[in-house]
Design a protein that fits this description.
Strand content: 5-15%
Distance between the termini: 81 Å
Order of helices and strands: EEEEH
Largest sheet: 2 strands, antiparallel
Oligomer: single chain
Low-confidence stretches: none
Helix content: 10-25%
Number of strands: 4
Length: 68
């Protein structure tokens, strides 16, 4: 019989992790199951940096119609 007091829970979906093959450690150190580690990592990832605006005077115009 498995001791339920020793079972860990996934921090993302609260599934009981009954064996080591189901357990994954996320980049923040929390425990997740193998089924949702990818979605958990995506949820804790910082947003991508915003692009730095370039003043219009610094933007190089490109001839796209082929007529120079």
């Amino acid at each position: 019989m498995v001791n339920s007091n020793n079972m860990k829970l996934c921090n993302n979906c609260n599934t009981q992790l009954s064996c080591g093959c189901q357990r994954r450690t996320a980049s923040d150190g929390k425990l997740c199951c193998d089924q949702c580690i990818t979605s958990y990592e995506a949820s804790i990832a910082p947003p991508p940096p915003k692009p730095i605006p370039v003043p219009e005077s610094k933007v190089k115009k490109i001839d796209t119609d082929g007529k120079s």
